[in-house]
Amino acid sequence: MVKPKTLIDIEKSVIRCTRCPELRAYTAEIARVKKRAYLDRDYWGKPVPAFGDPKARLVLVGLAPGAHGSNRTGRMFTGDASGDFLFPALYRAGFASQPNALDANDGLTLRDCLITAAGRCAPPGNKPTPQELRNCFPYLLEEFDALPSLRVAVGLGAIGFEAVLKMLRERGFALDLVRPRFGHGEEATATLGKRKIVTIASFHPSRQNTNTGKLTATMFDAIFKRANAHLASAY
């Protein structure tokens, strides 16, 4: 058997990835032009690797980096409104060392949690194409292989949720539901031998969901409360 790559090795591969030349050009252009509020900041402008605890039992899978969030800071869910909603929830649930995420050097660490995404480059309109998601999918598989203690996955948004289910099927897991549907709080359990992984669906903490009340802090906290409950009962 081939030994799984380490998260550090995967991170290096993600950062130098050129599978989507159009996205590399787009992220570099965003980093060159910048947003007026960040004209004095250096932008990351490259694919964004996963971030968190290499021994994590919980993984969060989002959509893709934001043009002026992760594409600027170089760290998943950092520097924009989505992260401003996510990290306080992770802090309240005990997975983050602090509620604020400003940049990659702010001292934030994750406990028992890893954050990744279906896409690693900021896409135009925040909408990666199906081919771009396929190009990124092998990195998600490699991260899964590098997390032997993984027990719970939270799909942030429909694309993140579907990416988790696809990953589990690809690795031979059997799902308890034939066609798990996306909806806030929906769950699917996957098994392979004695190993069990629970996938929980959550609305994405994007501004369009949080500003409209589609996703509230109470609703989001409930997701991580259930994640903690599953982890507490995991063998």
Verbal overview:
The structure is a single chain. The chain is of the alpha/beta class and 235 residues long. The chain has one domain (7-233): 3-Layer(aba) Sandwich (Uracil-DNA Glycosylase, subunit E), CATH 3.40.470. Helix content is 38%, strand content 14%. The chain has eight helices and seven strands; from the N terminus they run ααββααβαβαβββαα. It has helices spanning 7-15, 21-33, 70-73, 81-93, 130-145, 158-170, 207-210, 217-233, and strands spanning 51-52, 58-62, 113-117, 152-156, 174-175, 187-192, 195-202. Strands 1-3-2-4-7-6-5 form a seven-stranded mixed β-sheet, with helices on both faces. Helix 4 packs across helix 8. It is globular and about 50 Å long. The mean pLDDT is 96.
List keywords for this structure.
single chain; 235 residues; alpha/beta; Uracil-DNA Glycosylase, subunit E; seven-stranded mixed β-sheet; 8 helices; 38% helix
Unreliable spans: none
Q: What fraction strand?
A: 5-15%
Number of helices: 8
Which descriptor suits the 3D outline? globular
Number of structural units classed as domains = 1
Structural class: alpha/beta
Through-space gap between termini? 25 Å
Within CATH, the superfamily carries the name: Uracil-DNA glycosylase-like domain
Summarize the structure.
The chain is built from eight helices and seven strands. With 235 residues, it is of the alpha/beta class.
